[in-house]
Amino acid sequence: MLEDHVTAVSSPTAWPAAYPQGYAVVDVETTGLARDDRIISAAVYRLDARGEVEDHWYTLVNPERDPGPVWIHGLTSEALEGAPLFQDIAEEFSARLDGRVLVAHNAVFDWQMIAREYARAEREAPVRQRLCTIALSKELGLPLPNHKLESLAAHFGVVQQRAHHALDDARVLAEAFRPSLRAAAAGSVRLPLQECRPLTEWRDTATPRIGPQAGGYGGYGGTGSYRPTSWRPSRKRPACPYPNPGRYEEGKRLKQGMRVAFSGDTSTERDLLEDRAIEAGLHVSTSLSRLTSLLVTNDPDAGTSKVVKARQYGTPVVDEAAFGQLLRDVEPASEQ
Question: Are 299 and 250 in contact (CB under 8 A)?
Fold first, then answer.
């Protein structure tokens, strides 16, 4: 169940003083992608300030419910039956995270799953910042065909042995993160760190789903298809606390309260991209109007209704990569 390994460290001499002092590269496998889904396995690679592996840890977790898409993660109810509950491993998990920046691929998702589990256990995860390797790869301008973990691994020559196994995914990510971190340090790139906001309470409202005939597993299709966006309609976004300052102007910063709409496919999961925008203080809108400050699309020539309206209204348009850059430095809202 648990595994620990210590490795010798070596690292370059020059290093930005503002960079974090340590990282926890995390991967969790879950019963699905919805709010009521649970963690079934977790792995953490602890890295020092320069990305060298200090140790690693892995555990199964009993989700107290159907394990979800076994065809993806391979963990059956029988395999998880004797595993500890999350509250039983929360202390050890905390020791692995404490004082470090959480690093994950699509970090918003991993953090939300972890935060919910801690809230259910009436605890709080001891981590205050996270770093998404998708965002970092964009900051570095890596020539990736897409932003899947396998593409990032291939770019750095990291061999993946067991995809969707938390320990191997965390190993792959740690090995790909180290050269990414060094490239960022060599170029004095500001790391795209995001705040981790823990949940302080949790109440499960969903009825437990039992068996593959129960109509799917959160964001996973019950027939074996992977549908990562099927849970989006049930999400309720928090109201933006800032007034709309108007349209985005090219060459300037985004400002808290600006209304942002998205159109078409994105490399980053749409929910995660929207969460990043909300965390930055932007208003995410499902439709486009004359009040929309900015449209984000990777296909500005598409004939979607949002793109057509943006042309009609003169709404500024940027692609996903440019939007990611703008999210790094959002101007605070004006004081009222």
Answer: no
- Of the two residues 137 and 13, the one the predictor is more confident about is 137
Burial class (CB in 10 A: 0-12, 13-18, 19+), 302: middle
The reported pLDDT for the residue numbered 200 is 67
Encode pLDDT of 136-176 as tens digits.
998 999 999 887 899 999 999 999 999 889 999 999 999 99
Does the predicted model carry a pTM greater than 0.90?
no
Tell me how far apart the alpha carbons of residues 156 and 172 are, in angstroms, rounded to a whole number.
Answer: 10
* Token pair in block for residue 148: 């899947």
Is 276 in a helix, a strand, or coil? helix
- 56-81: buried (b, 16+ CB within 10 Å) or exposed (e) per residue? bbbbbbbbebbbbbbeebebeeeebe
The residues that bridge with 115 in the sheet, in sequence order, are none
